[in-house]
Amino acid sequence: MSGIWLAVFGIIVLALGYRYYSKFLAEKIYKLDPKYSTPAHKYKDGVDFVPTNKWVLWGHHFTSVAGAAPILGPAIAVYWGWLPAVLWVLLGTVFAAGVHDFGTLVLSVRHKGQSVGTLANTLIGQRAKILFLFIILLLVLMVNAVFAWVIANLFISNPSAVLSVFIQIPLAVWIGYNVYKKQGSMLLPSIAALAVMYFTAILASYFPVLQIDLVSYFGGEGTTTALGMTATSMAFFVWIIILMAYVYIASTLPVWKLLQPRDFINSHQLIVGLAILYLGLLFSNPEVTAPVSNSTTDTSWFPLLFITIACGAISGFHGLVSSGTSSKQLDKETDARFVGYLGAVGEGALALISIIAVVTFFPTAGEFSNTYSGFAEASGAGLGVFVQGAAQLATGLGIPAQAAATIVAVIVVSFAATTLDSSVRLMRYIISELGTEYNVPSLTKTHVATSVAVVSSAALTLIPEGPNGFGSGGYLLWPLFGTSNQLLAGISLLLISVWLKRLGRNYWPAMVPMIFLMFMTLWAMVSQVFTDWAPWAEGSDWLLFTFGAIVMIFAIWIMITAVSVLMNDNKDNAEKSA
């Protein structure tokens, strides 16, 4: 079968979801009010609360949520066959992610721009808020570690992409200054910046002098440095320090100075990247060689598929972005449909092309089976196979293979970096909230909270154990990230359901995906915690067992509390402010 048919079917489903289902949610469920004064106007401070054009905000939101996860998860999940992966991406995007991302954005806008963690206090009680904030804090810490790990390794394996990625930073600062100080346009400068990035990437592909290869700088692969580390480990360490210095600065600057303009550039990069891949698919017309459903797997796709593909179907991290940063920048409440639901649709389109790039990459089914011989092998190979498969699609447009691979690497790193600094910013908010909650004034200060976020993230990323040696922290926590992320999404949908019920509205569009997601995720988590990671299991892991058990207990506690509130609430308790 041609990969084109998968793309056509998927795009039609996603387009219909945005055209009809998101309109139903906007008009009948969330009841958006164009005259409602959003937090961006009520609390405008020029730092976090900044009224923003919906296209610019969509760019920030989309690229913040579309990191490496909607690429990595689907690239691993095709291990079970392309059909289960495609169906979960499409149905999850339309009926779960769209409801969740859109809903958390509206919920936060209607509650002073507060995060879902803080809103747990308003909706289901103080104790639930503390438990929820703990889960969120652990999740964003894992996001920081995982994405820093991914970026550092991509820099090491693709040195020709480094200069292009870093050139984006001064360009974004210049665009932000031009727009907010001189009232200039952001569209044309951001397109020009993107052109500069890609031109630099292509040049670096062919001229080694433009490649920033730290492994070679420290003596080359296999060399042991004076500090006793290999050149690769030393390069990884340096990249993590550079990345953490960058995210410290990026997460403390006003959003208009770097975050918004850089994300707007990345939104165009995402559109261009998707266009290249989908057009490359059209012109190259590759055959799908992966199996429809893989019957020889060493693990069942129930329930692991639903935590392996999180971003790209539904992800709790999206709710943190919606309620943590995007809600503080929404100009009009009616923009929430465009920003929230369309952001989810965009990520679904990215997950879909990720699946297609992988399942059409291998010349034969046998070669696919050899690479995806087990779940562990699929997890290790997924991202690399996507980069190669996406580059292969791009060559269908006549782009040289070497330049195509560099451009794909630039796109993946840019998205991952966007998610990383947004996540550090969110972690700073959470630490400040906990500082207020437990009366620790120092933690409410921006630079103190950011320092705690950055140092803890760097320490976790640089854990020197595990199968990958030095710097395996992000890699080791990936299994826990999947389940924690989906539990967060389920709890957020539960909060939306409680809020809608209090308003006397139909809460089943949020409740149905919540029930499905919580069932699958708790099933997966119980299996992992008590079968895979437990001290009595063959592959025991005390770190994952401890944190996994804590997160699971807290999530069940929050769920029981929320369900109790949901069952006992009535329309008379509806919040007058909404």
UniProtKB/TrEMBL annotation:
Its membrane topology: Multi-pass membrane protein
Q: Which residues cross the membrane?
A: 6-21, 62-82, 88-109, 130-155, 161-180, 187-207, 227-249, 270-288, 300-321, 341-362, 403-422, 443-463, 475-500, 507-530, 542-567
> Where is the CstA N-terminal domain positioned along the sequence?
3-363, 379-524
Q: Where in the cell is it found?
A: Cell membrane
GO terms in the biological process aspect are:
cellular response to starvation
UniProt keyword terms in alphabetical order = Cell membrane, Membrane, Transmembrane, Transmembrane helix
InterPro entries hit by this protein: CstA, CstA_N
Q: Does the keyword Cell membrane apply?
A: yes
Q: Name one GO cellular component term.
A: plasma membrane
Superkingdom of source = Bacteria
Q: Which family does it belong to?
A: Belongs to the peptide transporter carbon starvation (CstA) (TC 2.A.114) family.
* PANTHER family recorded: INNER MEMBRANE PEPTIDE TRANSPORTER (PTHR30252), PEPTIDE TRANSPORTER CSTA (PTHR30252:SF0)
Protein name per its UniProtKB record: Carbon starvation protein
